[in-house]
Amino acid sequence: QKEVEQNSGPLSVPEGAIASLNCTYSDRGSQSFFWYRQYSGKSPELIMFIYSNGDKEDGRFTAQLNKASQYVSLLIRDSQPSDSATYLCAVSQGGSEKLVFGKGTKLTVNP
Amino acid sequence: EPEVTQTPSHQVTQMGQEVILRCVPISNHLYFYWYRQILGQKVEFLVSFYNNEISEKSEIFDDQFSVERPDGSNFTLKIRSTKLEDSAMYFCASKGDTQYFGPGTRLTVL
């Protein structure tokens, strides 16, 4: 059974702080790693994807991947109240393969 | 910007009835997916579809489920005889560089 684990939270940070979200996965064959944001009652919205070990930055977001440790993280710098949402980690074996999701971490950014 | 669309946004049905959920994927995408999310739980894969056939399905996707691409634009999920436990959000996704999700259909089975 391929599993993706996330701390369910809630994670609470003050506005302007760095939010750090973590994810581990069980399938060593995983090739592609995604972070989606989901507001309550809405669909997952892609934030970032990462395929290679190391860091990938996009604006205020940085994804980090360590395949040896089977660990993915997402850093949100200068957190804003609008970043308050549930963050879903998803993993696939690449190509057209299905996404396997974690349960998500609920982030609250306090003004 | 192109997006995946889904109809209806909310469907209420009686247990045992058939429902069809509709999706219009992004036009140049070739891979299509259905996922569901029961309230408070994680997003779960149901089925993937490529070249007019199922490429993978999960254990959830049993004989009561079927998918179809009846024309060049629509992608449908049919649930033949709904059960209470089918109540969930159903998301369609299509894949270009990565998977993009539609807004979802909330299915309520009474």
How would you describe the overall organization of this protein?
- Chain A is built from no helices and 11 strands.
- Chain A has strands at residues 4-6, 11-14, 19-25, 32-38, 45-50, 54-58, 61-66, 71-76, 85-92, 100-101, 105-110.
- Chain A is an all-beta fold.
- In chain A, a hairpin with a 2-residue loop joins β6 (54-58) and β7 (61-66).
- Chain A is globular.
- In chain A, the strands form 2 sheets. In chain A, strands 2, 4, 5, 9, 10 and 11 form a 6-stranded mixed sheet that branches. In chain A, strands 1-3-8-7-6 form a 5-stranded antiparallel sheet, with no helix packed on it.
- Chain B has no helices and 11 strands.
- Chain B has strands spanning 5-7, 10-13, 19-24, 31-37, 44-50, 53-57, 65-68, 75-79, 88-95, 99-101, 105-109.
- In chain B, the strands form 2 sheets. In chain B, strands 2, 4, 5, 6, 9, 10 and 11 form a 7-stranded mixed sheet that branches. Chain B has a 4-stranded antiparallel sheet with strand order 1-3-8-7, with no helix packed on it.
- In chain B, β4 (31-37) and β5 (44-50) form a beta hairpin.
- The A-B interface holds A 32, 34, 36, 42-46, 49, 88, 90, 96-104 and B 31, 33, 35, 41-45, 48, 50, 55-56, 58, 89, 91, 93, 95, 98-104.
Radius of gyration of chain B, taken over Cα atoms and rounded to an integer in Å: 13 Å
Fraction of residues of chain B in helices? under 10%
Number of strands of chain B: 11
Secondary-structure content class of chain A: mainly beta
Q: Can you tell me the overall shape of chain B?
A: globular
Biggest sheet overview of chain B: 7 strands, mixed
Strand fraction of chain A equals over 45%
Q: How many DSSP E strands of chain A? A: 11
What is the beta-strand fraction of chain B?
A: over 45%
Low-confidence region ranges of chain B: none
Please tell me the overall pLDDT of chain B: 95
Query: Gap between N and C termini of chain A, in Å?
Result: 40 Å
Low-pLDDT runs of chain A: none
Order of helices and strands of chain B: EEEEEEEEEEE
Q: SSE string of chain A, helix = H, strand = E? A: EEEEEEEEEEE
Largest sheet: number of strands, sense, barrel closure of chain A: 6 strands, mixed
End-to-end Cα distance of chain B, whole Å, is: 37 Å
Backbone structural class of chain B: mainly beta
Radius of gyration of chain A, CA atoms, in whole angstroms? 13 Å
How many individual helices of chain B? 0
Q: Give the largest chain-chain interface (CB within 8 Å).
A: A-B, 20 and 24 residues
